[in-house]
Design brief:
By secondary structure, the protein is mainly beta. It is built from two helices and 19 strands. The strands form six sheets. Strands 1-6-16-19-5-2 form a six-stranded mixed β-sheet, with no helix packed on it. The protein has a four-stranded antiparallel β-sheet with strand order 7-15-11-12, with no helix packed on it. It has a three-stranded antiparallel β-sheet with strand order 8-14-13, with no helix packed on it.
Length: 199
């Protein structure tokens, strides 16, 4: 997969609209009952970042960013300001042999829950815990995969948790620039869709 480890400009991302999206097929019967089929096990984020443009300088930055990613061709990091932190997230339980744990974020509501794989943690924000005790050394994290690795495998039955911030791997969902010239030094790009990619 072609991916650039660079984050979309935070100040433009801050004004984005969007969030998680699912793909559900709904079939209505003649009696009015419904059969709903969940086609995706996990959500996929989708945003429009055009609403984040406020200044000409931001548009200049965005045009350069778009050209460098060649439209849809290259993925990049995106900070979803509505959901970018995780606290005390369970990653697994030690068995005395396994040293590596994937960063995860679990969303729970009532009896329902969804576990999200985090592949793009933010450098310097990951804080692991063993049995609730903060680990200040003896571990490392790969910020391109989200794999947390301990030098010594956590002991049998020890809960592994972590706090962290994370980005979302995304790409532009367009290959075209639709910039409108409003007046001198004032332009508008009406629709700039980006979509989460599975890594």
């Amino acid at each position: 997969m072609t991916f650039h480890e660079i984050r979309f400009p935070d100040d433009i991302a801050y004004g984005a609209s969007g969030g998680p999206e699912y793909l559900t097929t709904v079939v209505a019967t003649a009696s009015g009952f419904e059969q709903r089929n969940v086609n995706w096990a996990a959500a996929r984020g989708k945003w429009n970042v055009a609403s984040g443009l406020k200044h000409q300088s931001q548009l200049d930055t965005l045009i350069a960013f778009f050209r460098a990613r060649k439209g849809k061709a290259y993925g990049f990091r995106f900070k979803d300001w509505t959901d970018y932190k995780a606290f005390a997230q369970p990653l697994g339980v030690g068995d005395g042999a396994n040293k590596s744990f994937q960063l995860l974020k679990t969303y729970s509501s009532g009896a329902g829950n969804e576990t999200r794989t985090i592949t793009k943690p933010v450098q310097g924000t990951v804080v692991p815990y063993l049995a609730g005790v903060k680990q200040t050394s003896g571990w490392s994290v790969n910020t391109t995969t989200g794999i947390l690795t301990f030098l010594t495998a956590p002991a049998q039955g020890v809960a592994v948790t972590a706090d962290f911030e994370f980005d979302v791997p995304v790409r532009f969902d367009t290959d075209s620039m639709a910039v409108t010239i409003e007046q001198i030094d004032l332009h508008q790009w009406s629709d700039i869709p980006i979509i989460e990619i599975r890594i």
